[in-house]
Design goal:
Blueprint: H1 6-50, H2 60-63, E1 67-73, H3 90-95, E2 100-102, E3 114-116, E4 118-126, E5 129-140, E6 145-153, E7 160-167, H4 181-185, E8 202-203, E9 218-219, H5 226-239, H6 246-255
Parallel strand pairs: 8-9
Antiparallel strand pairs: 1-4, 2-3, 4-5, 5-6, 6-7
């Protein structure tokens, strides 16, 4: 009888697949806690970067003690006390019809489709005073949804103090330049609204002329990445509008931070 048969070959291949599947699954389960820790650490780092706090040589967890996470009811702009901000997952909530609402297409500037009923915000404190407010923002670029954090000066809730993106799949060297430190630095000091409360912040095509009217609301466009640039502009305009954090920002202006 031949030592090798089609049946034996298929059996060996099947057993090899089973063993490999078990090893991969076991590794995934074993590494899940570590991945969760690293994900949480990366999120903290990006919030700190949006806040303008220096990370080099710093203990992230110690530095994060200056940040107070809060949960906001997007409909009323009020803080919610019965949801733990440490465990709340806004992205997951946005996918759950029971925890989110559909965004009308005509108002969906960021192309997000659904919005969570509650959102995470972060108060940056110094000497017990709130100095900055950090808002999570996301919206569609060219190839992906960009997720980031926008920091506003707490004194006027208008001056932008930072913008960082922590997740996207835009083209390296083009739309991926949203990660370029030089481009991110351009946002510091820009104004989101004009004196009448109209949203004015935008990413323009080309370079900003500092001598032209409206330069305080403009940021240089990303070279060769027009659609990504438009995506950043649109998402910010959405999240700063009444559809986004408008109720929250209005409440802060009326009652103070």
């Amino acid at each position: 009888m031949p030592k090798e048969t089609a049946g034996k070959t298929f059996l060996v291949a099947f057993l090899l697949c089973v063993v490999c599947s078990v090893l991969v699954s076991s590794a995934a389960v074993f590494l899940r806690p570590t991945q969760a820790i690293n994900k949480a650490l990366d999120k903290k780092k990006n919030i700190l970067m949006a806040a303008g706090l220096k990370l080099e040589g710093a203990d992230v967890d110690e530095l994060f003690k200056n940040i107070e996470p809060k949960i906001v009811d997007m409909a009323t702009g009020q803080y919610v006390e019965d949801i733990d901000p440490e465990t709340y997952d806004q992205r997951r909530a946005a996918k759950d019809p029971a925890q989110s609402i559909a965004v009308p297409p005509e108002k969906d500037l960021g192309s997000i489709k659904r919005k969570a009923n509650y959102a995470s915000v972060y108060l940056v404190r110094k000497n017990e005073q709130v100095k900055k407010i950090i808002l999570p923002v996301h919206g569609l670029g060219l190839w992906s949804t960009l997720y980031g954090f926008l920091a506003l000066d707490a004194r006027d809730l208008n001056t932008i103090k930072g913008l960082v993106f922590y997740e996207h799949a835009e083209t390296p060297g083009l739309g991926g330049e949203v990660d370029n430190p030089a481009w991110k630095a351009l946002w510091n000091g820009k104004e989101a609204f004009d004196k009448d409360g109209n949203i004015r912040i935008e990413v323009i095509k080309g370079k900003v002329d500092p001598n032209r009217d409206g330069a305080q609301y403009q940021v240089d466009g990303l070279s060769g990445a027009t659609i990504t640039s438009r995506g950043v502009r649109s998402m910010l305009r959405y999240w700063l509008s009444a559809e986004g954090f408008g109720a929250y920002l209005t409440r802060l202006k009326e009652r103070g931070v």
